[in-house]
């Protein structure tokens, strides 16, 4: 598939609306002088929380005043915030160091992660490329191999920085493979640098591009490439709004300041996410433009004709559409227009608008994801979140259903038109990923690379169950655990969820999850509304004024686990990251009695102000904003975790986790939530915040930090369930 550079990564490139009705001003009513000091009742728990200053900022929404006493924590450039981070981390790590089996958990994680991991190979020019991690390397290394010659290192991100926090964030090759543009991320930031290499000499070509964000690289011959970014914000690079995405063309050998603006920069072309791609025959430039994380406009430009116009394919942002491929003037488009579960259509590039679309692969009852390779299309359907893959030719004729090695997730089947061998991986929660080769003509699959993970799947069960949510909706959930455990309500259990942005949680092996299973833990993953497991309608059922459905689905999952004796409230932890962090924050404030431990990670926790940071307003399709209407404001206020912490309530043992350089979901969300909990919690459970320094939203996190993080998360969880010894 053409790489869609609308870069909406899982919980995803989220953005900002400037328009608001005159009566919904959220301007601060007062200055931020300290008027009170946060309550500090932690001394009775054997530790003392740092004092968090309370300011007297008050915002007005529809004539209703909302206090925001910890607004000052939004200033990531202030010394006071830095001091607060340092003092919170000291308390947290002092507490974590008391856990008697913390080192034992690190050893377990290290052992499970210490095996050679190799990606599927891909062809670029005369070389075959693949990623490999020898075991505990902080970052995967990109290798290349010509024919039967010995593989050589092409790019080693472990040399980019001493502590492993600078990562390789993507690489794109020119059509003949002679040039490569690779992106690097420093400290987990979404802001990237782009470096171009001559793949023969390994010497840099031209200058390094800077300040690139949410972008792919689309080469046009060997002359240059298209990329996307925002104007560098004034003030904090971490939290300032980035509202207008622009597509540029960079000609090699010229200065970045002279790059040509291709799309964006005008009121007519103002969008929060803009991406460019070039068809493999170099015929068309494809531009995708969106104002939110759902729905996009689509344009094409004929690059073989001088001064050719930008032609609209679809200008309705209600739908998601993408151009998969072309054969001359014939375009192949995947879309959910008039097909909530998606379909593939064809159209002539001279008249590409929807009224001329013809079905090639019609919509079915299952959600479609599509890839291309070997001059075929591979339709991967989700059947109750489980993969089913079918091969189609370019006329839309079914060639075969591909027999998969089991029940789980298959991904891959991508490659160039001329390839006769493609590759795919297969995995589930208890089966480490195995890579298979696939012959496109015969349909034969063979194991290409078997996992060397030190984990025995035969010792574990993984099964799918269906439970009933509050409104009667049936929701699937996959449960994984050691064989032979007793269903007596005492099994330590992590209930993990996401429930948003059309993201589907399909079963995949993870060494960190395996470490939890090895300790006798149950791992439960429900496919909540708001996700994409059952198509657009399932997604919409968990958005805006229906967001409570997501929380109800998660709560019902917890009640199912308790009712069926997998666990009990004393042994149940809830975990989720990003939009999943919001999920955890919402359910722990709505049902604090239901869970023993809460683990919100990099969460969207202040629902009245999320849209004022970085690209946050782009998440409004899922959330709405407090400025939309009084009804929307009241709804958001009704579940916003920061605004629903109540004095006198005993909350679950809570470990909030975030990165101090997260420029997607800014850490102020987590800071303010932790401050509210510490000030108001009336129970004996600890409320801690673990702030990873020089770290972002999660992508590119070095292996060493992953081991430390999960040892602390699992240690905190088990310790607060009363488990004193592993």
Structural commentary:
- The chain is of the alpha+beta class and 726 residues long.
- It has two domains: 22-109 and 459-720, Rossmann fold, CATH 3.40.50.1820; 118-329, Prolyl oligopeptidase, N-terminal domain (Methylamine Dehydrogenase, Chain H).
- Helix content is 16%, strand content 32%.
- The protein contains ten helices and 41 strands.
- The protein has an eight-stranded mixed β-sheet, sandwiched between helices.
- Helix 2 (102-113) crosses helix 10 (703-720).
- The protein is globular.
- It starts with 35 loop residues before the first strand and ends in a 6-residue tail after the last helix.
Short description:
The chain has 726 residues and is of the alpha+beta class.
Amount of beta strand: 25-35%
Spatial sequence of strands, sheet with the most strands:
34-35-37-36-38-39-40-41
Oligomeric nature of the chains: single chain
CATH topology of the largest domain: Rossmann fold
Tell me how many strands there are. 41
Beginning-to-end CA distance, first to last residue = 47 Å
Just give the CATH class of the largest domain: Alpha Beta
* SS-derived structural category: alpha+beta
For this structure, what is the CATH homologous superfamily of the largest domain?
A: Alpha/Beta hydrolase fold, catalytic domain
Q: What level of helicity do the residues show?
A: 10-25%
CATH architecture type of the largest domain = 3-Layer(aba) Sandwich
CA radius of gyration is: 25 Å
Low-confidence stretches: 1-43
The average pLDDT value, as a whole number, equals 92
Q: What is the makeup of the main sheet?
A: 8 strands, mixed
User: How many helix segments?
Assistant: 10
């Amino acid at each position: 598939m053409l790489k869609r550079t609308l870069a909406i990564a899982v919980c995803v490139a989220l953005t900002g609306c400037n328009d608001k009705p005159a009566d919904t001003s959220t301007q601060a009513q007062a200055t931020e002088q300290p008027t009170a000091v946060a309550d500090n009742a932690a001394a009775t728990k054997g530790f003392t929380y740092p004092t968090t200053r309370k300011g007297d900022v008050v915002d007005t929404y529809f004539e209703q005043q909302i206090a925001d006493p910890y607004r000052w924590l939004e200033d990531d450039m202030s010394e006071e915030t830095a001091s607060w981070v340092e003092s919170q981390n000291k308390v947290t790590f002092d507490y974590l160091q008391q856990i008697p089996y913390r080192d034992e958990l690190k050893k377990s994680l290290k052992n499970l992660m210490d095996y050679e991991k190799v990606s599927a190979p891909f062809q670029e020019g005369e070389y075959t490329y693949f990623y490999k991690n020898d075991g505990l390397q902080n970052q995967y290394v990109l290798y290349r191999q010509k024919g039967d010659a010995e593989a050589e290192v092409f790019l080693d991100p472990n040399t980019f920085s001493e502590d492993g926090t600078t990562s390789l964030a993507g690489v794109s090759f020119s059509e003949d493979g002679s040039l490569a543009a690779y992106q690097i991320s420093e400290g987990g930031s979404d802001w990237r640098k782009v470096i171009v290499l001559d793949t023969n000499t390994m010497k840099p070509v031209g200058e390094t591009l800077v300040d690139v964000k949410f972008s792919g690289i689309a080469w046009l011959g060997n002359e240059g490439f298209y990329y996307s970014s925002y104007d560098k914000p004034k003030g904090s690079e971490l939290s300032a709004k980035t509202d207008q995405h622009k597509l540029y063309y960079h000609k090699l050998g010229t200065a970045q300041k002279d790059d040509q603006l291709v799309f964006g920069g005008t009121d007519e072309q103002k969008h929060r996410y803009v991406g460019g791609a070039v068809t493999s025959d170099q015929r068309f430039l494809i531009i995708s433009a969106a104002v939110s994380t759902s729905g996009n406009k689509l344009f094409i430009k004929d690059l073989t004709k001088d001064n050719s116009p930008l032609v609209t394919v679809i200008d309705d942002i209600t739908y998601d559409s993408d151009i998969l491929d072309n054969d001359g003037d014939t375009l192949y488009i995947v879309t959910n227009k008039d097909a909530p579960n998606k379909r593939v259509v064809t159209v002539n590039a001279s008249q590409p608008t929807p009224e001329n679309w013809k079905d090639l692969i019609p919509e079915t009852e299952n959600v479609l994801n599509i890839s291309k390779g070997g001059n075929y299309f591979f339709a991967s359907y989700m059947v109750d979140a489980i993969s089913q893959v079918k091969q189609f030719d370019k006329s839309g004729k079914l060639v075969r259903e591909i027999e998969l090695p089991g029940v789980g997730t298959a991904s891959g089947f991508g490659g160039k038109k001329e390839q006769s061998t493609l590759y795919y991986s297969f995995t589930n929660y208890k089966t480490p990923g195995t890579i298979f080769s696939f012959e496109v003509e015969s349909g034969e699959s063979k194991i290409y690379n078997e996992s060397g993970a030190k984990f025995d799947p035969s010792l574990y069960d993984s099964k799918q169950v269906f439970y009933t949510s509050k409104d009667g909706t049936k929701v699937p959930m996959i449960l994984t655990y050691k064989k032979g455990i007793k269903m007596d309500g005492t099994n330590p259990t992590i209930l993990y969820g996401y429930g948003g942005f059309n993201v589907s949680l399909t079963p995949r092996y993870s060494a960190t999850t395996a470490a939890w299973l090895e300790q006798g833990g149950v791992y439960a993953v429900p496919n909540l509304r708001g996700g994409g497991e059952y198509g657009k309608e399932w997604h919409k059922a968990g958005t805006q004024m229906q967001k409570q459905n997501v929380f109800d689905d998660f709560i019902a999952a917890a009640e199912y686990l308790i009712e069926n004796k997998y666990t009990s409230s004393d042994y149940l932890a809830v975990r989720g990251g990003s939009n999943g962090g919001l999920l955890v924050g919402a359910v722990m404030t709505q049902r604090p009695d239901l869970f023993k431990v809460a683990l919100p990670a990099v969460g969207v926790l202040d629902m009245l102000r999320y849209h004022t940071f970085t690209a946050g307003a782009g998440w409004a399709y899922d959330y709405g904003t407090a400025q939309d209407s009084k009804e929307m404001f009241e709804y958001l206020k009704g579940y916003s975790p920061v605004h629903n912490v109540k004095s006198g309530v005993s909350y679950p043992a809570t470990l909030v986790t975030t990165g101090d350089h997260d420029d997607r979901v800014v850490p102020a969300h987590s800071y303010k939530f932790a401050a509210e909990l510490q000030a108001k919690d009336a129970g004996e459970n600890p409320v801690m915040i673990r702030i990873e320094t020089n770290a972002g939203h999660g992508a590119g996190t070095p292996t060493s930090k992953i081991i430390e993080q999960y040892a602390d998360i699992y240690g905190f969880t088990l310790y607060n369930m009363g488990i004193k010894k592993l």
